[in-house]
Each structure stands twice: as structure tokens, then as C-alpha cells.
Amino acid sequence: MLPGNTDFIADPFNLAFLGVFALVILTVASTLVVAFVRTRQAVARGKAAQMLWHEEFEELPASAKECRHAFTGELPGRHCARAFDCKGCEKHAELLSLSPALPASDESGLDIPNDRLYHRGHAWLKPLDDGTVAVGLDDLASRLVGKPDALELPALGARVDENGPALRLRAGSARVRVASPVTGEVVEHGSLSGPFLLRVRPTAGLDTRALLTPREAAAYFTRELDRLQLAISGARGVPALADGGLPVADLGKAIPSEDRDRVLGEMLLES
Questions:
Q1: Residue of 125, 202, 189, 203 whose CA lies nearest to 152
Q2: Which among 49, 89, 121, 254 could disulfide-bond with 161, CB atoms 3.0 to 4.6 Å apart, if both were Cys?
Q3: Helix pair angle (214-232, 257-267), 10° resolution
Q4: Residue ranges in the chain whose pLDDT is less than 70
Q5: Cα 71 to chain center, whole Å?
Q6: Are strands 159-160 and 198-202 parallel, antiparallel or unpaired?
Q7: pLDDT score at 182
Q8: Which residues make beta-bridge pairs with 184?
Q9: 3-state SS, residue 150
Q10: Distance between CA atoms of 153 and 198, rounded to whole angstroms?
């Protein structure tokens, strides 16, 4: 039936069969090519996001690079040299194996729910029953941003990369990115008034070793309030902290517009 076969007869039936056969082969081949190209693009985007994050990390002040085990009191004075990538840190693994006791109290005055994990750039991640994760802003970032003028979310189906941009916020003259605590595909949009901002389906499994536990976050936020005080200390007339050491509810509106972009960028780890 095929050309080259001495029994092949070029009648309409055989020609139609060859056409369908060729179409199937082309469809399979094109599908494989598209999948290959998309995979390479995804890998390239992931590498680009990590390269950009490492560049931003190098530009951060020393106060923002403090090791998670420093602000818990386990390794005072230690700074991170791995761009907060705790997954390959031998010292982190060693301390986890010892199960050290962390401070039980929260002196920051901020809301730190126990059902989620926290990124150093002030996003949180909450695993859901269907295998996806919810992503939102922690209480410090929410108070700092206040009510933003615009919320820019990635398109449904788009990929977000850990430490790469998860979303962008515009508050007055400031436009800042919020770093993603996870790598995956955006499957649902939330809102500032809802329970989350994004719902993401993680790729290649969920690895949360670089994220802070609620107890670590409590110690971290206390240090972050000190860093916030330093970040805005140069702005005239700014009520950085209310009486009693608690942050004002809408700190973003209190920061002069000329300082807002700088302060938000410093606190959200955007150089």
C-alpha cells in the first residue's frame, strides 16, 4: 500500500490513507516540538528569575541578609551568603536536626497565622488540600502598602518562580514587586479583600525548606520592625511606630511620596 511497495496502487483510497497518515505524523511531531520549546522557555525563565534574584540579593543591605538562625538567637551575627536558599545549607540542616527551642512569644504585634509559611520578602504560602498553594501578603506588608492603587497579577496559566515576581503593587508613586514563595503555575486569581492573592500549582513538588515557620516569622518580624524604623527614619514627619511599639495600621499613607518607593523596595527585598 505504501510507495516503494510493488503492490502500491495510487487510487483515491490509498492516497487518502497516506494523507491521513502524514497528518498524524505531522501532528505528533509538531506537538513534541512545541512541548520541547515550551520546556526550554520555562527552564530559561526559571534560570533568569534566579539570576535576577541573586543580583538583587547582592544589592541588599547587610541588615536584610541576616540568617534565619541569627534572629532566632541560635547563631547571633550570622548573615546568609546563599540568597536565602536554605535547601543546600549544611548548617541549617544541622540545626533542624537538633530541633532547637525557638521563642514561643510574638513581640512584633503583627498577625502571624500558624497555618502558613513565610517568605523573607513578606509573602506567605499556605498549602491547600488539592495540592495547590495560596499566596498572599503578610501583615507587615499589608500595613506598609495600605490600600494600593493597583494590583497586577500574572495571567492564569503563567509561571511564577521562587524569589521571582509573584505580583506587583502600585501605591502612589511606588510600584514594587512581591517575590514569589513558590515555583509553579498560576491557577486562580484572588483579591486584596479575599483569603489570598494567587493560587499556584507547584511544579516538581513543593519544597518549603527556604520558608520561615510561624515561630521563626515572629522573631523575623520583630527584627523587620527595627529595619523598617531605620528605612524611614530619614523621612520627615513619619509616625513609624505607634505608641507601644506597634506599627500604625496604614503606614504607607504616612510615608512621603518621595520616600515610598525606596521604603517599600527595601522592605520587600527589591533592590
A1: 189
A2: 49
A3: 150
A4: 1-11, 13-18, 31-46, 99-107, 234-254, 271
A5: 21
A6: unpaired
A7: 97
A8: 160, 202
A9: strand
A10: 8
List alpha helices for the chain, DSSP H.
12-59, 68-71, 90-98, 139-145, 214-232, 251-254, 257-267
At 138 the pLDDT is 96
Residue 244 confidence (pLDDT): 47
Tell me the CATH class for 60-267.
mainly beta
Going by C-beta distance under 8 Å and a sequence separation of 6 or more, which residues neighbour residue 261?
173, 174, 175, 176
Cα–Cα dist 224/71, whole Å = 10
198-247 pLDDT, tens digit per residue, is 999 999 889 999 999 998 999 999 889 888 888 877 555 455 555 444 45
Q: In sequence order, what E strands does 72-204 have?
A: 117-118, 123-127, 133-137, 150-152, 159-160, 165-171, 174-179, 184-189, 198-202
Closest-CA residue to 53 (of 205, 178, 203): 178
pLDDT of residue 7: 61
Cell triple for 96: 533542624
Q: Which three cell numbers, joined as nine digits, stand for 10?
A: 495510487
Residue 5's pLDDT is 55
- Name the grid cell of 78: 550570622
